[in-house]
């Protein structure tokens, strides 16, 4: 097997990306501390052509060298918006017609193995230590939980984002044909 070159992959330009149809999923980062996690989320959002990423509270925002280190330019292709308050972001997304889902371990959460959401959705991912704030959890339509089978109680936020983006992308593409 021979690895493909970048030219052979025929990727779109940032301008083409901005004009292209998007997967109707918004990623909301609630006070994410690590610039590397922010960059990684932006890069994955580019890969699955997500609608946008909302950066809230203390979450860093471009331009920033540490974000660029992992985003590798996705900060220039993916639409992103900053909100001082995650609650304000959630209210705005709900007003735009999005279902708002926190990815968090709560009583009555929906397991990702059972998750079949295809409506325009916003997923809220939380701080690396504290998770999604209770105030924001209370504003969400429901919570999604990724099953885990080891000793740790959580995944890294950028890994969580990638798993959920992929699952939504996969299931929504199947549903749309």
Please tell me about this protein's structure.
The protein has about 180 residues and is α/β, with parallel strands linked by helices. It contains eight helices and seven strands; from the N terminus they run ααβαβααβαβββαβα. The chain has a seven-stranded parallel sheet with strand order 3-2-1-6-4-7-5, with helices on both faces. It is globular, with a radius of gyration of 16 Å.
Which terms would index this structure?
177 residues, alpha/beta, 7-stranded parallel beta sheet, 7 strands, 40% helix, globular
Strand content: 15-25%
Instruction: Spell out the helices and strands N to C.
Output: HHEHEHHEHEEEHEH
Mean pLDDT: 96
Question: Distance between termini?
Answer: 31 Å
Total helix count? 8
Main sheet specs: 7 strands, parallel
Residues in helices, as a percent range: 25-40%
Radius of gyration: 16 Å
Helix/strand-derived category reads: alpha/beta
């Amino acid at each position: 097997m021979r690895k493909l070159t970048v030219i052979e992959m025929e990727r779109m330009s940032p301008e083409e990306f901005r004009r292209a149809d998007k997967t109707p999923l918004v990623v909301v980062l609630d006070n994410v501390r690590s610039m590397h996690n922010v960059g990684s989320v932006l890069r994955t959002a580019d890969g699955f052509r997500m609608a946008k990423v909302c950066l809230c509270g203390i979450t860093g925002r471009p331009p920033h060298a540490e974000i660029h280190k992992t985003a590798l330019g996705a900060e220039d292709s993916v639409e992103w918006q900053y909100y001082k308050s995650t609650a304000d972001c959630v209210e705005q997304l709900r007003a735009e017609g999005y279902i708002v889902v926190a990815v968090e371990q709560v009583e009555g959460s929906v397991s990702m193995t059972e998750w079949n959401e295809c409506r325009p959705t916003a997923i809220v991912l939380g701080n690396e230590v504290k998770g999604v704030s209770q105030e924001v959890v209370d504003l969400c339509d429901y919570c999604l939980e990724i099953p885990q089978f080891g000793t740790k109680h959580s995944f890294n936020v950028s890994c969580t984002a990638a798993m959920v983006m992929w699952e939504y992308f996969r299931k929504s593409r199947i549903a749309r044909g």
